[in-house]
Amino acid sequence: MSQFTTTASPKVLHFTAPWHPSHAQMSAVMTALPTAFPSLTFQSLPAETSPTLVNKFNVTVVPTFIFLLNDEVWSRLEGADPSELTRKVGELKEESFKLKGNNTNAAVVKEVEKEVEKEKEEGEEGGIDEELRKKIQTLLTSAPVLLLMKGTPTSPKCGFSRQTISLLQSSKIPFSSYNILENDAIRQGVKIYSDWPTYPQLYVKGELIGGLDILKDLAEDGPLSESLGVSALESIDERLSRLTKRSEVIVFMKGLPSGPKCGFSRQIVEILEDVCPKGYDSFNILEDEEVRRELKRFSEWPTYPQLWVRGELVGGLDVVREMKEEGELKELIEG
After folding, report:
1. Which residues, including other chains, have CB under 8 Å from residue 205's CB and lie 6 or more apart?
2. What GO terms fall under cellular component here (predicted)?
3. Cα 21 from Cα 195, distance rounded (Å)
4. Which residue from 117, 215, 260, 312 puts its CA 20 to 30 A from 45's CA?
């Protein structure tokens, strides 16, 4: 939303800018929060086109979150921190309930305070000790991208986990996973540690991104890999394209130039040693079955060795030998 609206309910204002790296992530969080906190109002405002509100709330950085209670600033949060944002939203909801009690009668106030105190005691009793905290920290930083889920990628145990796996795989996001059903202490502890009540949960470099709804929103804003700040997995054609362009001159062969594993590869090495005084690159197809199998399709050339110059296929041994005899090979390589 771009226009500020006045409501009686507690409000969370999100001042943002589309160009900011955190825009997609934090906007997705703001989209998901109303489901968990229906009694609160959430608004996103473009800082650059809301000068009056920016001045009113003294917004100097994006993202900035302003928490309003009875149309007064109750708290604020600067920076992109989904966990802290969720925690503060929960506190705002709790505070609004307390105030609602004050507007009713003393008996209700007492009851509310009793409930709040009970929740605090339960929180302390259900808290996480230092040993468990360290285990959780180690787990969450054990992989660049980690999915805490119910089940495993090959056997998810809930629909949300299954959908999340599908989304990550279709977006070519490399990830590790942890089955929270195998350890109830971890399962309950992470909810407290990250202040996020449901699973699955996705972490990037140890930082909580969110659950399925947030990932869906991020994917709608563009490539999910870019929103998460991770590199997507290459398709085999992307990898082959990169490999064939890795060096100006590269030969895909059986073995290495220093130890060819077939007569054809040995002969092409002898030719290249003669016409490439500056050296050349090589790739041993015997060490990578996928490349060995798929390069034939990619190049539409059924045999090895294969010589590539500046990302273009030259051919196999017969073609290379003929080009050398006619003086064309050296000219092509030096050209």
Report:
1. 141, 144
2. cytosol; nucleus
3. 23
4. 215
Give mean pLDDT, residues 104-127: 46
Would you state the structure tokens that stand for residue 138, as one six-digit string? 């180690």
- Burial (CB < 10 A; 0-12, 13-18, 19+), residue 215, is buried
Residues paired with residue 11 on neighbouring β-strands, in sequence order = 41, 68
The C-alpha atoms of residue 255 and residue 240 are separated, in whole angstroms, by 18
CB contact at 8 A, 142 and 176: yes
CA distance 207 to 194: 9
Is a pLDDT exceeding 80 seen at residue 223? yes
pLDDT digits (tens, 9 = 90+) for 77-106: 998 888 889 889 988 988 887 776 554 444
Q: How many CB atoms lie within 10 A of CB 74?
A: 18
**According to DSSP H, which parts of the chain are helical?**
23-36, 51-56, 82-102, 106-125, 130-140, 159-170, 184-194, 212-220, 224-228, 236-244, 263-275, 289-299, 317-325, 328-334
Asked whether the beta carbons of 100 and 92 are under 8 A apart, the reply is: no
DSSP state string for 14-68: EEE-TTSTTHHHHHHHHHHHHHH-TTSEEEEEEGGG-HHHHHHTT--SSSEEEEE
**Cβ-contact 270, 324 below 8 angstroms:** no
- Among the listed residues 301, 305, 304, 308, the one whose alpha carbon sits nearest the alpha carbon of residue 241: 308
Q: Is the pTM of this model over 0.90?
A: no
Sheet-wide strand order for 201-204: 176-179, 145-149, 201-204, 207-210
Q: How many residues does the chain have?
A: 335
How many Cα atoms are found within 13 Å in the side-chain-facing hemisphere of 10? 24
Task: Report whether 246 contacts 295 (CB < 8 A).
Answer: no
